[in-house]
Design brief:
alpha+beta, 60s Ribosomal Protein L30, Chain: A, 4-stranded mixed β-sheet, 4 strands
Length: about 200
């Protein structure tokens, strides 16, 4: 007599697809990543949207490390300097930025207001805005930073009435130091912005 084998399937033996959490979790993670990427500030917005910083954020703020005291610039004295020398430079105590940032410090605005007025008073001048850094950090990073800082100054000037077609940005990074990078004072002198008349 032959025995027949009958396989009985129970409800629990059926093969199920992946549980809902196994495909929903990666989708939620991708969604969260996308939201994070689109909600963070982009590089071109950092310079204009960053909160102004105070002098206490400057890296060389201890007594005796500033290259020289900020001069009391007026639009007339800035124009005279440019007429005599074809250029003007602003040291770290006059126009400065947060460390490793292109965000202009709020106390830089007084000097830049006078620069804007001097340029508006001399509408035939075309200027190069040159950004310089010290040698702290890598060369490529300093090149980028000096470009962003010069763009921040240019953006400030254009927002205060200077026609952007009169301004050109140049990044010098750490390649044209005004002083040694071996001391705090020298590095502070190297962090500067220059305007050169074309």
């Amino acid at each position: 007599m032959a025995t027949e084998k009958v396989k009985v399937y129970e409800e629990g033996d059926k093969k199920k697809g992946l549980p809902i959490w196994a495909w929903l979790l990666p989708l939620l993670l991708l969604l969260a990543l996308g939201i994070w990427l689109f909600s963070r500030p982009h590089d071109n917005q950092t310079a204009t949207n960053a909160a102004p910083v105070t002098d206490s954020t400057k890296p060389d703020n201890s007594p005796g490390t500033q290259p020289q005291a900020a001069r009391n610039w007026t639009a007339a004295s800035i124009a005279d300097e440019i007429k005599q020398n074809g250029r003007i430079g602003f040291n770290d105590s006059e126009v400065h930025f947060a460390t490793a940032s292109a965000a202009l410090a709020s106390d830089s605005q007084a000097v830049l207001d006078q620069v804007a007025q001097a340029l508006k008073n001399n509408p035939d001048w075309k200027m190069r805005v040159m950004g310089h850094t010290d040698s702290t950090g890598s060369g490529p990073a300093n090149d980028t930073l000096s470009q962003q800082r010069a763009q921040s100054v240019m953006a400030y000037l254009t927002s205060h009435g200077v026609d952007s077609s009169r301004l050109q940005v140049e990044a010098k990074g750490q390649h044209q130091p005004a002083a040694t990078n071996a001391t705090d004072t020298g590095r502070a002198e190297n962090r500067r912005v220059e305007l050169i008349k074309d």
